[in-house]
Amino acid sequence: MRKATEFGVGLTLLLVAGGCGMSRYEFEPNRVYLRAQENITRVELSPVQRQDIQDILAFWFGTPDEPRFPALADVPMDEILDLELLQAAAGPVGSEEDGTNFGVYRRNCAVCHGITGDGIGPAGAFLNPYARDFRRGLFKYTSTLGPMTPPTDQDLRLLLERGMPGTSMPSYQLLADRDLDALVQYVKYLAIRGSVERALIVESVDHLRDADDRLVDVDFDRDSPERIAAALAELTPLISFLARPWLDAPSRVVEVPPRPEGWDSSEAVARGRELFAGQVANCATCHGDDGRGDVDTVDYDDWTKEYFDPQNPRRVHEYLALGALKPREMVTRNLQWGIFRGGSEPEDVYQRIFHGIPGTPMPAAPIKDADAPATDLRLTTDDLWDLVAYVLFLSSSGDLVANGSVASSNVSGQ
Amino acid sequence: MSRFLLALVFGVCAVGMGSIPAVGQQYGDLTATFVYGGDPFVASPLKITSDKEFCDRFEVLDETLVVNPQNQGIANVFVWLFLGRGEQAPEPHPSYAETAEDKILLDNLECRFDPHALVLRTTQTLILGNSDAIGHNCKIDTFANPPINYTIPAGGQLEHQLKMPERLPARVSCSIHPWMSGWVLVKDNPYMAVSDADGKLEIKNVPVGTWTFQVWQQRAGYVNQVTIDGQPVEWVRGRLEIEINPGTNDVGTVVLAPELFAD
Asked: Could you tell me if B248 and B28 are in contact, meaning their C-beta atoms sit under 8 angstroms apart?
């Protein structure tokens, strides 16, 4: 039996802030992305065309209380998402007598990430950095190759256990195993749903002939589910395209090579320092030679740049009116603090340098193949380990110098 | 089913590459000249915020709108073959086979991207170059292809392939030098072009028949209101329908009013 329990402050806040929807818990349309696409193309969708997008999404993905996902011919969606766990994460907060919890997303996450996963929960506007908008399907701290390769379940699980030190994203180490698994599922669900919405927006803006044309010719209120499903069949390749990478993610994990002998020796640190400041790795351009990140650059993350053009700042007002958060400058990390949002193990830092941080200015380091000629300017994996040594040295150099393990430290700011 | 979906489903990378077009197929060239309808337009210099010692020696200008002071020609206007729902790209003319696997250079030169705008086929390879004496990086925000953000050492070069067609030109930026911007349009057919410094462009060897082309400029979005031979013309969603006959098919001198570029 499922009994609703009090949710407290978070819920009350949500009810107050969620004033736009008809019912209390509805997914919010992605108005900001729609407007951005309308502005890029100078096309305006009609109210019917906008509503179609929401109706299609609801048909495929259900509601915040009753999540679901469509079965596809070419991608086994039930290998990507587990319906039972999704249902446990969704809906109102509650628990069964045996202690099984429901509504774990609403209880733990929605206050920051929002019901829709747009990062605009009741507390959202006050955070710095802002809570992640999951709807792009873009994540920063993954073990998988390349941006847009989604994280593995394991990546998300570790992230929830660890939290993101230096941000408001808490650690959920104390939650039950099953709750953590349910949350992982729900983040994936919101990400897939959100990216499908974006694709539907693009599809509408790009391909509809005129204001009377529609993505599908159905009556969502009257037509039978079978008829609607049949009509929507021609659009399901969009879901396949966006969901398949989640299925493939485990096969795209990049193995970190083992730490080389003496990887944290003073020689390695010295080499790393040189690379850090050099033209190839180019870290110092953003982080400064001593890693303090006080270099004078102004930039924004990709989530922000979607509606904010730094060269043309005034235009942002129309997006703020649609609920977008006020742009916050991207802060280049001060590496002397030794706070790593993606994990502080040397292997974690290696991955950050190898992959870059997707969605932010931090680029992937240029790596050469093992058999590349010596004239190839790019870095070897050993070079990367030297950089790891230097980055970790930066935050702990005080101790290292005291221990005498690094003789010739002249890092400023110590 | 739309072109976009088709591309996704079948991963159409090289439509009909190398195949033989129907016997007797005729072709014509499309030409157009884009000019600015307002007072002479002077681009403003961009603010150099990093690597000043190196970059300040160049005059780096805002390239969101580039107008030729001699003839008012607008550079960097993209035109591509538009395919509606269910439409297939035509067999490319055999002359395109020669360039199908070309390497196309996008250079970091004098603290800007050179060229500012380029077209790339899914069969071609993009070379990300860096002719400057400082490090750059190259971030391409694609939609259908995985976006990238690579560091390119001074004097270095990197090859990259974009295997999926994109709906619109994708923005290129450099995270180290946030004022830098460029555009790459990726399609799986060769029928696309970017206007040159005189505002002129040419798309050669289009199969005869009626086709729709789409016209886009980074600041104007889809170019939807223009004047040709003194007559106002509306191109809904930047779409221009034209009958291609053998020989040259000139759209004419297309005048774009300053309002199109208003913020």
From this structure: yes
